[in-house]
């Protein structure tokens, strides 16, 4: 397996029109800007003063705007029957944020989500996400199959794909969606299969609800290379007291760790953060979560303890970053417990987020040492959980590459925030222990590991889920330039530092990106986030534009 396919887990391009004319999109404000989606033929990102000030509620403002643009957005019926509000909140800048799911006759359209921002004056300032057009002309087929039939059909193909009957972590789930691909739209069952054996997988299958044809399939597990969160399943004690222990990590460094004393035994259970941080021992088996880590004297200095010490401490540090810097209470924003399992399988050269928890292998000693021994690896994987509960970027093609890049970016930002030997390499602390100066990926120079640093040389094949790890180099280089500055492909970028990059990228991820986002939408999301935070004419906005110019994303 090539290293770029082992990378830490670690669509169509867009045309940008700087301003809409009155003939292109109704009669907009002169400040209105739009990205058009080549693939959908509808606007993917609209920004500016899109409506007049209003005292109406945010839903009314957004629905009225959508209805006024119906011809260009190419949906039929009233906006209220075509877009369902799934989330509404007011942020610390005074914007009311809405997340809307596109539906067709009450059925959700897979991957089609739109976000909207209304400012304190009742002005719609941005609409992000391309609605899929003319579904009334495209949706074919009837809902003939039953859920169980779709599960069976997908399972038969899954067995062929992975080589044997999977051992499920939970029963496969199935829901009806409208699945759009290649200009065709079908009623389909989205069936999810989550398992560890014969290999870790979190597969989504799309089974035609009329014919039973498998329309598409994708493994959504976010691996350490190439919605749960509730405590339970590992024998957690319920009576005792919070304590502080000490231990040595994978690299031999000593650190304090929050533990829990119950019946004369100390557990790696930290009750001071959200609903808790729990660390488990798989004992080299492929089971989850395993046994909650227990110790007799609250001093974890044995070599076998190192992976657990780091997993526990670094999960806490990642929690602290998101809470203290972005006021986010755990990955879901609601204090979800952070669960980690170490010593998974034997000589396992990987780590992954399986949709429920973190899992770390010990490595084979030459390619990897225990993967929990790197703060940026832990933060990378837990950022996948943040992404799953916010933008929910589909793990394929450009949206998948943005997903991976976001995890690299925040893994690095957490490392800088904690001052944990920060650099711009990914996983350098646990990768190839006998070789210095390398990592799974380089954000400062992705080409060192064979990954692209410019959109013009992006990978366009089907491997690596359409290049999710490979093409993350494009987003990584943009973030590096935005933070540190530099000249790339003849474009000079003035760096703004890690703190501001974190604020801009966090806002873009949690409020503007949508499941099917492209790199062009990422640029628009970052520009709009910088505009919200620092103003339209700010130096920060100028640097964001320059950084994406430098990597060829328009």
Short key terms for the protein model shown above:
Neutral Protease, domain 2; 27% strand; TATA-Binding Protein; 554 residues; alpha+beta; seven-stranded antiparallel β-sheet; seven-stranded mixed β-sheet
Structural topology:
Elements: E1 14-17, E2 33-37, E3 43-47, H1 58-68, H2 70-73, H3 79-82, E4 83-90, E5 96-104, E6 107-118, E7 124-128, H4 135-138, E8 139-140, H5 147-162, E9 167-168, E10 173-181, E11 184-197, E12 201-208, E13 214-219, E14 222-223, E15 241-248, E16 254-262, E17 265-267, E18 269-270, E19 277-281, E20 291-292, E21 294-295, E22 299-300, H6 306-326, E23 338-344, E24 351-353, E25 358-361, H7 375-388, H8 397-417, E26 425-426, E27 441-442, H9 463-467, H10 472-484, E28 486-488, E29 491-493, H11 498-512, H12 519-534, H13 539-550
Parallel strand pairs: 8-11, 15-22, 19-23, 23-25
Antiparallel strand pairs: 1-2, 2-3, 3-7, 4-5, 5-6, 6-7, 9-11, 10-11, 11-12, 12-13, 14-24, 15-16, 16-17, 17-21, 18-19, 19-20, 24-25, 26-27, 28-29
Describe the structure.
This protein is α+β, with helices and mostly antiparallel strands and 554 residues long. The chain has four domains: 3-10 and 394-550, Neutral Protease, domain 2 (Orthogonal Bundle), CATH 1.10.390; 14-134, TATA-Binding Protein (2-Layer Sandwich), CATH 3.30.310; 147-210; 241-388, Elastase, domain 1, CATH 3.10.170.10. Helices cover 28% and strands 27% of the residues. The protein is built from 13 helices and 29 strands. It has a seven-stranded antiparallel sheet. α8 (397-417) runs parallel beside α10 (472-484), α8 (397-417) runs antiparallel to α11 and α12 packs antiparallel against α13 (539-550). The radius of gyration is 23 Å and the shape is globular. It starts with 13 loop residues before the first strand and ends with a helix. Mean pLDDT is 92; it is low at 1-30 and 227-233.
């Amino acid at each position: 397996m090539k290293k770029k396919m082992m990378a830490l887990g670690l669509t169509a391009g867009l045309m940008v029109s700087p301003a809409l004319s009155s003939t292109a999109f109704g009669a907009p404000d002169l400040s209105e800007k739009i990205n058009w989606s080549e693939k959908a033929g509808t606007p993917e990102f609209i920004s500016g003063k899109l409506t007049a000030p209003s005292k109406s509620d945010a839903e009314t403002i957004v629905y009225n705007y959508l209805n006024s643009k119906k011809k260009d957005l190419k949906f039929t019926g009233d906006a209220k029957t075509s877009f369902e509000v799934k989330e509404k909140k007011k942020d610390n800048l005074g914007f009311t944020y809405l997340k809307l799911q596109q539906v067709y006759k009450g059925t959700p359209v897979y991957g089609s989500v739109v976000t909207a921002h209304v400012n304190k004056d009742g002005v719609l300032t941005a609409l992000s996400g391309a609605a899929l057009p003319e579904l009334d002309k495209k949706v074919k087929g009837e809902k003939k199959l039953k859920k169980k039939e779709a599960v069976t059909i997908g399972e038969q193909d899954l067995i062929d794909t992975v080589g044997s009957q999977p051992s499920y972590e939970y029963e496969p789930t199935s829901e009806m969606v409208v699945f759009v691909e290649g200009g065709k739209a079908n009623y389909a069952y989205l069936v999810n299969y989550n398992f560890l054996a014969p290999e870790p997988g979190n597969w989504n299958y799309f089974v035609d609800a009329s014919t039973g044809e498998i329309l598409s399939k994708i493994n959504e597990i976010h691996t350490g290379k190439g919605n749960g969160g509730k405590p339970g399943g590992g024998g957690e004690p319920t009576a005792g007291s919070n304590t502080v222990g000490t231990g040595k990590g994978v690299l031999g460094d000593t650190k304090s760790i929050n533990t829990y004393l119950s019946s004369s035994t100390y557990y790696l259970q930290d009750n001071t953060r959200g609903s808790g941080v729990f660390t488990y021992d798989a004992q080299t088996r492929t089971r989850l979560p395993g046994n909650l880590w227990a110790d007799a004297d609250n001093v974890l200095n044995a070599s076998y303890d190192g992976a657990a010490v780091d997993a526990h401490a670094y999960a806490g540090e990642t929690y602290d970053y998101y809470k203290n810097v972005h006021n986010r209470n755990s990955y879901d924003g609601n204090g979800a417990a952070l669960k980690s399992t170490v010593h998974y399988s034997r000589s396992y050269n990987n780590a992954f987020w399986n949709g429920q928890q973190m899992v770390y292998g010990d490595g084979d000693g030459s390619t990897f040492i225990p993967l929990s021994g790197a703060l940026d690896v832990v933060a990378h994987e837990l950022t996948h959980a943040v992404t799953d509960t916010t933008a929910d970027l589909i793990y394929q093609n450009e949206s998948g590459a943005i997903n991976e890049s976001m995890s690299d970016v925040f893994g690095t930002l957490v490392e800088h925030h904690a001052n944990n030997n920060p650099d711009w390499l990914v996983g350098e602390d646990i990768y190839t222990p006998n070789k210095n100066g390398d990592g799974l990926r380089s954000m400062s120079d992705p080409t060192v590991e064979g990954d692209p640093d410019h959109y013009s040389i992006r990978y366009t094949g089907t491997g690596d889920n359409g290049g999710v790890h490979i093409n993350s180099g494009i987003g990584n280089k943009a973030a590096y330039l935005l933070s540190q500055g530099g000249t790339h492909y003849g474009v000079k970028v003035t760096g703004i530092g890690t703190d501001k990059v974190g604020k801009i990228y966090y806002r873009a991820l949690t409020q503007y990106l949508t499941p099917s986002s492209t790199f062009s939408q990422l640029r628009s999301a970052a520009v709009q986030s910088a505009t919200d935070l620092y103003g339209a004419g700010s130096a920060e906005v100028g640097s964001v534009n320059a950084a994406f110019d430098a990597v060829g994303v328009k």
